[in-house]
Amino acid sequence: MKQELAKFFDVPPEGYSSIELMLTEEEITLIEYMQDKKYTYEELLVLIQPRFDLDPKEFISQAYKRGVINKERRNDSIVYKSASLYTRLAYFAQYESDLWKSIAPKEREDLDRWYVKKYAEGAIPRLKEIENGSTNLIENAFFYTLDETLNLIDELKEEMYIVPCNCKSVALNCDKPKNVCILFEKDINSEWDRGWGEPISKEKAKEIVTMANKKGLMHTSESEKAICNCDGCCCYPIRASKMIGTQGIWPKKRYNILWEQDRCISCGICAKVCNFNAFNKEGAMISFEKEKCWGCTICKEHCPVSAITLIKLDK
Ligand code: SF4
Ligand code: SF4
Ligand code: SF4
């Protein structure tokens, strides 16, 4: 692994052995040439043209699509710079999943641990800003009930598109449905702007959310960029939140659970569906530990006898 690549593509030791699977030879050379400088499209063409025996426009378009380079706004124009392994890994796992799965499990697990740590580090200052009164919303800001998610879809003005969930694609910790990430952000560096995603109708979006709910996935959104259908074992926002101790804050808890024990038939579904072990089943005994509940609301949807109800919090 060349030092320039490690430095300018922010490759941690965990990624040294697999980086050459994630980048083409030409992409590695491009990163080494670009270093940490920014280039206009024309400057990038001049950099690429004499060096590579390939169509430079197509090369730039593919490098951007694959998360190898990023765009940045400079005044009214766009400049390009090297992305990082952090960006590239998600696209690699989402769209070249066979190659990602071909990497030895231990190396994948090490990269997964690095990824969630990096994600958590990036979230801390943004959460601090929110705590200090910023109105910027972090992704996956709130847990949403199924009805709220369906209403959000009805109210959305933006066109929606579907992409494979990058958390489940990278972490590979479960076999829950992956094609459940509904996005509506189309700005630079979004999946849409890079050339990914399939447009979906409101009806299709509702179908996906309802299916995800049946499979026990939790709905989260900040209502500005995405509607996510998350699990507890892969989802980086939830794992990062666990890591930095922001249960109840991110994603924000908006409901308490009221468990009516006398209605409960001890089926144990809530214990299976809860990602945080708030409900437990031992033999025929069901128990509920309020302090472990993140307020995701998914257990309520799955209880066959309505022994679980939601109490809206004033926040
Ligand atoms: S936040 Fe949720 S739906 Fe979105 S990519 Fe992660 S697990 Fe998937
Ligand atoms: S008990 Fe709380 S955390 Fe567990 S599924 Fe129900 S709402 Fe979610
Ligand atoms: S899902 Fe409902 S009925 Fe089944 S164990 Fe949980 S609370 Fe009881």
From TrEMBL:
PROSITE patterns per UniProt: 4FE4S_FER_1, 4FE4S_FER_2
Swiss-Prot/TrEMBL keywords? Iron, Iron-sulfur, Metal-binding, Pyruvate
* Chain ranges of the 4Fe-4S ferredoxin-type domain: 255-284, 286-313
List, alphabetically, the InterPro entries matched: 4Fe4S_Fe-S-bd, 4Fe4S_Fe_S_CS
Q: Which domain of life is it from?
A: Bacteria
Q: What is this protein called?
A: Pyruvate/2-oxoacid:ferredoxin oxidoreductase delta subunit
Q: Which organism is it from?
A: Alkaliphilus hydrothermalis
* Lineage of source species: Bacteria, Bacillati, Bacillota, Clostridia, Peptostreptococcales
